[in-house]
Amino acid sequence: MLQMPARVAERAQAEFIGLAPILRMSINGGDLRGLAQLLLDAAGRDENNACLWMNLATAMFALELEQPGSAVQQQALSMQRTYTRASSRATNFRLLMLMAPGNLAENTPIDCLLEDSPVELTCHFVSPDELFPTPLPEHDALLVAFSDSAANSPLLERLSPILDQWPRPVINRPAFIANTERSRASQLLQGVPGLLMPPTYPLPRAAVESAALAQGDSCGPAAFPIIIRPLGSQAGHELERIADAQALAGYMERVHAPALYVSPFVDYSGDDGRFRKIRVALLDGVPYVSHMAVSSNWMVHYLNAGMYEDAAKRREEEAFMDRFDAFAQRHAVALRAIHERCGLDYLCIDCAETRDGQLLIFEIDHVMVVHSMDSLALFPFKHVHMAKLHHGFEDYLYRLRAAATESEQT
């Protein structure tokens, strides 16, 4: 029987809990639907409880109920736009996060990384009429959490000159967030020794349908196979490998997006025919391992790679994570270039190693999830390595504050 932690259900009706407790339930098979129904019933009785509505929206997004989740979130935001997740321990740092309305892929899920930390998170959902909370809460640093979507780009442009003059440290400045967009990232990362990120072309539908795509010209890859997905898609939604013109025609019949990303497919399978995708977090240029998924399918997602069911895969992941320092050293030039060219203080990289030893980059972004929520019985090794990133992030925050204090005193 699925379990609903009583403490989570109790807190979610009384205070803003953020994503972490809800994601933990989802990953560990908790009764997330039961929690959502409980919160929905409570919201019917307590219509003016903004925190309750916001927690309900998060639960709905975790259940992939996008439309009702958005409606519930807007109800919460109509009451208030600023929410504070209190620290579970004595507060030792106050982080103000600028966020955008949207689903779980819209903002940096830093509360999953800083779960059970002494960091107090204040989440302000930005709007054109309210860029910052009023009154502005005391904070030691500010983090720009939202993604570079078309809807968010005007807000990032407005925030950029303001945050350039901000009196507190700013993490992930708006001017650099645009560098995570797939085609821009692929341009930035060309010409780095040992790094391979195939060019990604954002193309209108008509250009994809044209025969020129298969022949190769200045606006598209030279030959099949290619990778294709709609602009703005995440988590592999409508992402496919296309082998020839006939397969492309079939894809275009099924998918009606007005614009698509197209890039060459790189076979990154190992000698055993399996594919291995690695997630690395870069914090102030320092790499930390998050996970490695092993799959027989080229489109690797950790949740469907069979890592929970296959002990041999988990042993391979453990061995890789234990040897991650060697991986980071092999690809030190590439990782340093990503940090320097992208400009973000914190971001994640989905990548692989090719058979000839190159670091193949699939995506760089600051909104990927990293966490330490997997079963301790199945993944004891993960908790050890994720603790390094958890403590590394806390130490990074303290260094920022110390540097800011020293600057004020000189």
Automatic annotation (TrEMBL):
<protein>
    <recommendedName>
        <fullName>Glutathione synthase/Ribosomal protein S6 modification enzyme (Glutaminyl transferase)</fullName>
    </recommendedName>
</protein>
